[in-house]
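Request from the bench team (R.T.):
"We need a structural guess for the complex before ordering more zinc ion. Sequence and SMILES attached. Just send the tokens back."

Command: build protein-zinc ion structure.
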Amino acid sequence: MAEETVPFTGDPDSTTWAAERAGSGPHPLILIGPTNITDGHARRIRELFAAVESIASRPVTLRISGSPATTAPAHVLRAMELPPGMEPAPDGALNPYLLMTQGEIFQQARRAGLPAPVLTRTISCVRAPHSATAHCGHCPACLTRRAGLLAALGRDNTPYLTDAWNVADHGDTLRDREAVRTWLRRDLTGVELDLPSNAPMDASPGRLRAAIERARIELRRMFDTGGDRRSEPSAA
Ligand SMILES: [Zn+2]
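Reply to R.T.: structure attached below.
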């Protein structure tokens, strides 16, 4: 019986893709988790795996054996630093969400059946010290995550180490926020608009530009509302 394998790092993109694939096809699905990660990260991956397994309509197995890869779109990866040891999915691997914003990917996860609280358990941060499951709150990955959760759910219950919107600007927080703000103001470059070799079939330079512009709208909305931290608990 043919197996399908997909990378599974606990980030929003690979978690969403795993949930989508878990609901389609009769053959076993193997989620490849990264090796050389902290115990906390491994626990979180197992927790997210259980969430995916609970909505699966096919056999799903977690295998901790892979080199860490991510399904995050190339334009997201270029806008932020990759976590240490993390690599983009290899050429030839699908980059299914190239034409989606982070908010659209979270919405896709909901459509695939993942409850909203599970989205909050995904891991985006590239900077948090000590634990691969913590979120610093101000790196480009955390800012993109917050903008995406606000766009998709109208709230962001992620426990950030720093509330980047409620502290005086200093050091990393200011530098990170200004880097994203600068990116939002400038024109996109040719490199940013290059289609990667693993782009989905329906990708085109025009559609990629449109997706990146939608991603910038999500981020601008968050900046315009000062982080808009609505965190009241709500049902899945
Ligand atoms: Zn962060």
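Two things stood out. The two ends are 35 Å apart (CA to CA). The first strand starts at residue 4 and ends at 7.
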